[in-house]
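Lab meeting minutes (informal)
Scribe: AK
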Amino acid sequence: MGVKYAGLGLLMLLALICDYKIYRIKNAVVVPFIVAGILTNTVLGGPEGLKSSISGILLPVLLLIVFFALRMLGAGDIKLFSAVGSIMGAEFVMYAMAYSFISGGVIAVLIIALRKNGKERLRHLVAYIKSCFLSFSLLPYTDFEDKSDGAKFRFSYAIACGTLIQIIAAFYL
């Protein structure tokens, strides 16, 4: 089990560094951990370990694809969740995702409070919802390439927080 947590820690560290430097989480960071998670779980748990890894990889993709399609979450974030799932399994990644979204909400509120742009963000959300209803379609929520609007933060920070909370919860609950 220590090998899994060491791998998870290294994955988070590399993903945070990559996301901080280039605002993306590269495949070169997550793919080796997905492969390592599959191999480790297969060696340690046999067919059940393999099943655990595969379900841990697929669960984030299936649950979060809508957020990607709406441009509310980047592909790298989903792949990072899949790498976590590959290493730790579906149940772990499910809780880590829940804690990550809660952490993301806390981070977003803090950013809005610090930037004092709550009214602007609320107007943007209302305009987005209105546009979706008027056009009868789901439109992209944001442009990831535009870093100047003050509305984005690196979600890998929330993923790292959520994963850490799940590690603590797994040990103490």
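Next up, CB showed the second protein from the same session:
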Amino acid sequence: MPALITAIRADSISRKPCGHPCVRPEGCRIHWKTKSHFPCAVCGKPTGSSSGRCQSHIGSYYQNWYENRLRQRIRAIYD
């Protein structure tokens, strides 16, 4: 019976990259409020950016966003 309890406890406690054992699904007591990181849409590096791009590739995202905004203004003037 104690082996079963130990197995259940081992399953409920996960280890995050920091190495601290944690019972909460969010993470350990130190890192549970950290922002989620996703892979960059271009290179795959982890990023927390809302655009989904890392610091190296965010410039092209904003450049495209700005150009599209200008195109919409021009279309609104001529339509």
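CB comment: The mean pLDDT is 75.
No objections, moving on.
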